[in-house]
Amino acid sequence: MSADRTNPPLRPTAQVHFGIFFQGVNHHTVWSDPRAGSQTDFLSFRRLIETAERGLFDAFFLGEGLRLRETNGRLHDLDVVGRPDAVTQLAALAAVTRHIGLVATQNTTYNDPADLARRLASLDVLSGGRAAWNVVTTDNAWTGANFRRGGHLDHADRYHRAADFLTAARAVWDSFADDAVAPAADAAGDAWARPGGIAPVAVDGRTLSSHVTPTVPRSRQGHPVIFQAGDSPTGRTFAAENADVIFSAHGSDLDDALAFARDIRRRTVAAGRPADDVKIFPGTSFVLGATEAEAREKAQWLVHEQISHATALSVISHIWGEDLSHLDADGPLPDHDPDVPELSSTRGSGAGRSDAITLARNLRARADERGLSIREAVIAADRRQGFVGTPDAVADTLVEFVRSGAVDGFNISPWLVPDGLDDVVDLLVPALQERGAYRTAYEGTTLREHLGLREPLTRRGRQQGARPDARLDAAAVGA
Amino acid sequence: MSQRPLVVAVELDGHGSHPAAWRASAERPGAVFDPAVLRRTALAAENGGFAFVTFDDALTTTQATASPGSVAGRLDAVVRSAFLAPLTARVGLAPRVDPRGVEPFHLAAQLASLDIASLGRGAWVVGDADQPHLADAVDRVVPESAVDRRREVADVVAAVRRLWDSWEDDAVIKDVSTGRYIDRDRVHDVEVSTPTFSITGASITPRPPQGQLVVVAPDTVLDPAAADVTLVGGADVAAVVARAQAARAAGATRVLAEIEVLLDADVATGERLAALDAHASWAASDALRFIGSAPGLLALLEQLTDAVDGVRLHPAVLSADLPVLTRSVLPRLVAAGLVRLPRAGDTLRDTLDLPRPASVFTRKDAA
Known about the structure:
The structure holds two protein chains of two kinds. Chain A is an alpha/beta fold. Chain A has two domains: about 15-290 and about 385-475, TIM Barrel, CATH 3.20.20.30; about 310-380, no CATH class. Helices cover about 35% and strands about 10% of the residues of chain A. In chain A, α3 (about 115-125) packs across α5 (about 155-175), α6 (about 235-240) packs across α7 and α10 packs across α11 (about 375-380). By secondary structure, chain B is an alpha/beta fold. Helices cover about 35% and strands about 15% of the residues of chain B. In chain B, the strands form three sheets. An eight-stranded parallel beta barrel of chain B has the order 1-2-3-4-9-10-11-13, surrounded by seven helices. In chain B, α9 links the parallel β11 (about 255-265) and β12 (about 290). In chain B, α2 packs parallel to α11 (about 320-335) and α10 (about 295-305) crosses α11. Chain B is globular. Chains A and B meet through β4, α2, α3, β8 and α9 of A and α1, α2, α4, α5 and α6 of B. Chain A: Keywords: Flavoprotein, FMN, Monooxygenase, Oxidoreductase. Chain A: It comes from Serinibacter arcticus. Chain A: GO terms for molecular function: monooxygenase activity; oxidoreductase activity, acting on paired donors, with incorporation or reduction of molecular oxygen. Chain A: This is Nitrilotriacetate monooxygenase component A. Chain A: InterPro entries: Diverse_substr_monoxygenases, Luciferase-like_dom, Luciferase-like_sf, NTA_MOA.
């Protein structure tokens, strides 16, 4: 928040890291602008990831939603919707990139470990050790209606299943001994893989069991990197016990970010891990201008593009749980409380459960106090403003966030596809580099190296020299 | 019978179709995990003029991968195919996926994404291998009887096609005046219900460029009327011809003959086969098998042209037999006017002369 305030630099030489989060669905992506391209064409993804790699980003990140969003029982039609399967799309993008990490959001409730761990490992091997998995859970039967397993898990059980799932996935990834496969046919005796070189997986957890003989070896980074985004106490503990990176929602206010980081470090140490073992990457966005005034003006324009009259009415319809599309978005908010006390989770917002009555009253209180219309009240409540300013001013703020120990990097959602990263890479990255706070070349080849991570949790403390056979995943080919 | 050019496809999984192929390969045993080898092999097939390449796969151990002498490693076939999408421009990409082990909703999105990334060159080889430990791997009951397995395959294929259709082609409207990105009336819940699974909503992925990917399946696995391309085998030419005729009678759109090939290379076939068989015998599969010279294979293909629309070749050893096919077989088929090279910018349906299907939700007679 405040670049002018003093915060003791806990890590005076720490570097800012960037990832890009290609959201796919939300009202923050402006599709109506004449500069907006296709949200679905492969070339749009390729253009964005090539820009991110030019900007020396750590990772390219794809979201996931397993049922199309609805507002009051009908498909939500105002926002970008429709996206590729993450692992499949990242496999295609792996072929045209060399360094950048490839993060797939994938659900533990509606997948099988034997299948998902294998697909992630396949991506990891083909990309030369650049894959990551953002572990998400779902607890509603509405999404389950698209899957064999159907049904729903309660909030606690979904994390139990996620933990069991990760145990099984790691067993899949640990199955191949480093020297399992014969290095040459003439040295091979009878077998392509030496006896005992591939350990069958036999995991019987509380919520699932998985018995399979895997077919994929480890990549040069050992395991895919694990991302996690839970923010509840259970989610934070789960991340501290399991994740390499937290994709947090605490990256706009420095005090809030510091408090979150302290909490995560405490939980990480409690889980028996070094305090810096989990990296923190809040989601954010940038609006850059040549002057502060220009940047603020652009941000005002942007938020009005993002929250149209129709979107504002859709947002309040969601909160009030009734169709309010007949109202005038330039007029006042409804003066009654929502009938339904709780938002229907995931159907529209992706924001999880919230108290609808409190949300509505907060909106109304702010609107009454400042004389805001429906649309202006929705805009004022929009939390994802990100950083607005000149490249130099924003760079100073980001450096303070990282060097105070509040975050390790930022996961940037561009609001324009496919050109939305251009000014970040062309203006903000050089400003950070001038401050000695951003890499000027990739030093490693794997995502684990870009992020400065240790060995995978189940691979620590092994004998030296037990690295995966580098020949098994020769560097990914360029285009 | 066939006036169209002959379709020639090739299987590229592992080191080749002979179980000892990995011993004779010019590539090291672990090359099945090497992206550079994958790219090189696929480009060789594309430059050689094949219509599409297929990648065998299975989620769990099968009879073919269980024996100690065989290759026990492979990467997921959809992931391999997607990796090749931006590296190739003309050849079709056809991963094998067996329906019993998948979530149909995920599979539809994965294959649609392959088609989008390849600009319409995606296909799906439907299989149903015996996988004795499949239920233990996926932690649920899977259909086991022959009847149940056949019904499950048909149900998953139908569900996946319906998911591909769930977005009409023009569902994204970007209507700035009303603020609507999609026309919600052109995106449809699929409402699929079968004895083993049900799916309510529309796909998360818009309709793929080909409308529906090309569905390729053996006549033993899927009713020919439910496939776009039916694969038939047989112990000899007469058996293949009879199977092809039966498939056509059952409503097949295109029929390809499955042929395993071991060709004279630097070393003659007799010596090559003896060296391979010394390590592991090449058990008979359902495919026709050809062992001999390139001209001999050409003669066989000409013999089959009246009965089938094309062939899928299974090279015994990829590093030895694929170069013979691309140097001495495909060019002669092209020169003889029997094969037409795929063109850049064509979809796989274009290459196979298959129509692009209308979405079931826009056809007047059904929904």
